[in-house]
Amino acid sequence: MATVEEKQTVQTDQETILKVEDLKKYFPIKGGILKRTVGNVKAVDGVTFDVKQGETLGIVGESGSGKSTLGRMILRLLEPTEGKVLFEDHDITHLSHKKMRPFRKEMQIVFQDPFASLNSKMSVEQLIEEPMIIQTDMGKKERKKRINYLLEKVGLRASDRLKYPHEFSGGQRQRISIARALANNPKFVIADEAVSALDVSIQAQVLNLMSDLQEDLGLTYLFISHDLSVVKHISDRVGVMYLGRLAEIAPKHAIYKEPLHPYTQALLSAIPDTDVDLEKEKVKLEGDLPSPSNPPSGCAFRTRCPMAHDKCAEVRPELQHMGDGHYVACHLYDEEQ
Amino acid sequence: MLEVKDLKTYFYLDDDQVAKAVDDVDLTVKAGETVAIVGESGSGKSITSLSIMQLINKPGKIVDGEISLLGRNLLNLSNREMTKIRGNDMAMIFQEPMTALNPVYTIGNQITEVLRKHKKMNRKQAKRRAIDLLKLVGFPRAEDTVDEYPHQLSGGMRQRAMIAIAISCDPKLLIADEPTTALDVTIQAQILDLMSDMKEKLEMGLLLITHDLGVVAEYADRVLVMYGGQIVEQSPKRNLFKDPKHPYTEGLLESLPSVHNDLERLGTIRGMVPPAHKFPTGCRFSSRCPHAMDKCFESNPELIDLDHEHAVRCYLYTED
């Protein structure tokens, strides 16, 4: 069995498909009788990374880390407050609806809840056909042909075409969502907690399907999840988010074998593992995630960090390169120390 | 301490169909022991725990079996007697603390209600005890928290408050149904550690219902794997993870991505859990089992004892 490490080395020379530069999203908090803006929830606060053609970048974080907001901004489902999104070297951050259209064909998303994200009044056929009608000038025959092709690709039967979403289980519905996302042959797919609502045995089926599709169709994935094990399984590189910022981003093996950021270390040690003989050193985190409307000064993680020192309260750490594509935002790795 | 025998909880559906949500479940929990029930959605794990608490409503009914706690058969008790036991001798923690707590009462109110009812404390004693309990479960400002409402607390803190309510009358048995499923991993670790601490301190038996095999591996002493309303395998924790016997348990373990291995592909179990009124005749797992033989489709195997308290419901392990 080929290990994922081999796949990794091949991909380093590949082109960048998506670039995100210093992306920010602030949601204003309105207060008082005049509904003035009294503060901001800094959901995403300066995130920079790029995604290479054909790879899977995993984004992990707990609730409130800003990972979903990030995904939505990349697709322009939310307008960024600041920063840039570049898709295949085109700046799409401020494109009008009309000019954005050709890009929508290339960029798709699969959401967490297949019960809510599929229109219950449309049949499977209609659901998959709709994006083709909007985006392409394919004839009816061609569309039907493609629907059958897609259904087979995602492991559904051609006879399922005329059924409605409620006739399917959660795992099968997620297959329909995937078929719909792939309708116009996109290059880039965001999966936002796409397997989180599924039971493990079904989750495994959908994850395997996503890997197969990636290989067959040359897809690039941005895989957003709270589940570190799932992200490890599917990703080539992984970014860890905390309170709207990237704490660490690195090739998968580096992040899971030698996590540098104290938050990543704590997160990894908190996952209960099925290996009953595993002796692991536990890094326990105290307390909860601080409110993103009033984040701590300096490093956002310092209030829960076991290694925090004076500088952490004063200066916000930026991502620094530690070699081999491993970036970390932590003062422990500053030069002068 | 807790002994459940041949428990059958059926749901009578509108169209005269019967959903055998729990069918012939035996289990025991000793003092100071953590027993985990694992299974996917539809396996009957939650219905088992609700049956033990006797919180089954129509169209569901406990049709047969015996549930004894400290030697008393709970199924013979009247509603009133059962009310005395619930919250007192045994207590339950649910998955979603926001819906389990009453949003219009303060945390203090919800703890003192239990104490005044079961322990006949007066207002002042109850409040003092409530503050002590909140301190015990890790609230740093317990004196203030008693007067706060659930919405003022974070998810993890709400679950701590639920634990405080559950242990307020020193129950002998604590049932936790997916207590950390709604929480982030770092908070999950805090809550599970707190529950194990409380179990040791109060010498309770803990029945942990979960879908998460990682949680089971880390916190349980014994494990029951449920599928289709029945226990398909039971064993001390180590054996189950090192040497799973039932094809379903094997399948579950193989389908689980882990941060410690590098599999290119995950194992899968084909198909999905059938609905409870359409279980296959014969072994309930037969429709998905990679090793299914002719007789698996004809009759349902019994739970067979192997060595070391390990039991499995599968024809692969019968003599003939």
From TrEMBL, chain A:
Instruction: List each copy of the ABC transporter domain by range.
Output: 18-268
Pfam families reported in the protein's UniProt record: ABC_tran, oligo_HPY
Do you know which InterPro entries this protein is assigned to? Answer: AAA+_ATPase (IPR003593), ABC_transp_ATP-bind (IPR050319), ABC_transporter-like_ATP-bd (IPR003439), ABC_transporter-like_CS (IPR017871), Oligopep_ABC_C (IPR013563), P-loop_NTPase (IPR027417)
- One record GO biological process: peptide transport
Which keywords annotate this record?
Answer: ATP-binding, Nucleotide-binding, Transport
Q: Which PANTHER family match?
A: D,D-DIPEPTIDE TRANSPORT ATP-BINDING PROTEIN DDPF-RELATED, TRANSPORT ATP-BINDING PROTEIN
The record's listing under NCBIfam families reads: oligo_HPY, PRK11308.1
Q: Specify the protein name.
A: Peptide/nickel transport system ATP-binding protein/oligopeptide transport system ATP-binding protein
Classification of source organism: Bacteria, Bacillati, Bacillota, Bacilli, Bacillales
TrEMBL record, chain B:
Q: What is its main location?
A: membrane
Q: What keywords sit in the KW lines?
A: ATP-binding, Cell membrane, Membrane, Nucleotide-binding, Transport
Q: Which SMART domains match?
A: AAA
Q: Name one GO cellular component term.
A: plasma membrane
In the record, biological process GO terms are: peptide transport
Q: Decide whether keyword Cell membrane is in the record.
A: yes
GO MF annotation terms: ATP binding; ATP hydrolysis activity
Source organism, top-level taxon: Bacteria
State the similarity comment. Belongs to the ABC transporter superfamily.
Protein name (Swiss-Prot/TrEMBL): Peptide/nickel transport system ATP-binding protein
Organism source for this protein? Answer: Aquisalibacillus elongatus
